[in-house]
Automatic annotation (TrEMBL):
It comes from the Bacteria. One of its GO terms (molecular function) is hydrolase activity. InterPro entries: AB_hydrolase_fold, Esterase-like, Mycobacterial_A85_antigen. Keywords: Hydrolase. Pfam families: Esterase. This is Alpha/beta hydrolase-fold protein.
Amino acid sequence: MIFDKTHFSEDLIDNKIETGLHIILTTDEDDSRPIYISGNFNDWRTQDKEFVMERVGTGLYHFKFKHDFPLPETVLYKFTKGDWSAVEIDANGERTENRSTNQHTGIQKEHVFRWRKNWLPFKQNFLPQIQLISDEFEIPQLNTTRKVWALLPHDYDNSTESYPVMYLQDAQNLFNENAKFGNWEIDKKLAVMSEYKVGKIIVIAVEHAEGGRIQEYNVGKTVLGKGLGKKYIKFLVETLKPYVDSNFRTKKEREFTGIGGSSMGALVSIFSGLRHPEVFGKLMIFSPSLWVTPKIKIKNKEGGSTKIYLYAGGDESETMIEHVETFKKRMLENDFVNDEMKINLSINKLGKHNETYWSDEFPKAIEWLFFNTKDN
């Protein structure tokens, strides 16, 4: 049934819809993306399928909390198009404060003027602190050195808080405006997330080996030849993580430690998680080069539950989606991920093999891996 935008609330009452709290939303900017309501009733999750609003007309949406839903005394909430990159903003493009109501029944009318687009605008004062740990960080396992960066929460110096850590490969492409192959812009995205009090995390970014990148991220003997990946993983586990834990306020346990990357960087991240599940409890795997080693050996995990965020684009290769779907299946069959809810497969049918699409996926992965307390 399609309701008139002006008289929607009256129509609801006239149709004697059962008791409960009804949220009626109108918006000036409407498109095909679903609208989610997130708040203190679902730990502010922005991708919660249980809280998708029903589209009942152009620019007109409805959501109903059932009469027996355990709402907080004061309900706090916001509207998004699926993540903080597309959260509601006011008519001037500014951040809106949390909406609130003490009603647990009846009708609550709301309006959204605009939606944040492409993570703009972001606030400079929420940008993470970017520190060059060293431009010649020693990698004794490979007898070489490398640039290693730390991205710290914007208020790190004014806080005593400890933070989860995500280790990312290919630092050259993560926050460099002049990156040759594109830029994930994780600094800007972490700024927006931080403004909304989610995503406070330390990111450790390791630059790749330029011409030696493929060999360094290649684990064992594969179609690419014999790789140095096992030694690189030892560096991450035996050298880099102890240094980071000693010099920054980190949450050291595996459930607060993640590793990730894209393409070959994703592949070496997979092996890092498989070989050291006692260290890495979160894996962020974007467009992994699974064709390199089609028969990955999966051992039963040790140390606790692992969460894996898998992403693939439909316009990357003929086999990309097939490979990641098979990988997900094998993870579940081998009990490496002991619950299907612990693995999130995100597929963009139009997605290409480049930084733009990995950039869009990054904040969604961080939020789901570290801040979706329902599944942690």
